[in-house]
């Protein structure tokens, strides 16, 4: 008789999100979405993006990102972080930004984007 084990793709979304919160941005973007449909859907949950530690070496990471997602136009470091802020829907609680993304204007822009998401959430919750 063949034993049957639970399959990872059958895990409840909440469980997957809890696991995905603990992995790095690189795996969350370049690995998890390509495993199966349920993992892809779970990776879209804003809670997966609450704690972000960006890769120290941007260019190799960005080259792989562009290849995986078939992006033709190179994003700047700040543009990429804005993409992550958007993906988090303003739920970022902690973000570690390496030197390649530490220009003051860029950080202010990221902060403004987070504020906009939080204000939008506040307005929706008032309704």
Automatic annotation (TrEMBL):
InterPro entries in alphabetical order: F-box-like_dom_sf
How is this protein named in the record? F-box protein
